[in-house]
Design goal:
about 140 residues, alpha+beta, five-stranded antiparallel sheet, two-stranded antiparallel sheet, 7 strands
Amino acid sequence: MTETAFTHNHRVRLHEVDGAGLLFFGQLFTLAHNCYEELLLAAALPLQEIVEQGEFSIPLVHAEADYHHPIHQGELLRLTIHVSKIGEHSFTLKTLVESTDKHGGSILRGVVTTVHVTISSATGESIPLPDPLREILHRHG
């Protein structure tokens, strides 16, 4: 059932940091969401296509982040999404944000957890996860 977690790399840009040269706290959510979009794109179900078709949408209903170590401008990050829960109408993603230390070890910089629901674009009511989306989620659980 499980294929693998999905990983995406990102180098922290100057516009993503605050005056202290550290990743601005809200950017962690942007990085996690970008990784989620890359997962869907790699699985041939791009978010753009979902939006353009307009049959359903996948809004967030909960988001939280834990910050373990500072993230600096220029740092290369490895974001790894794990699908931690798949329900009838919703799913939960856990995105680990890591970097590599000077000895080649991994440093956990932060963790973002998001809960998404699927709703009908026409009615706004929750709907069961569409099969193509459910299949992608099961592969990356």
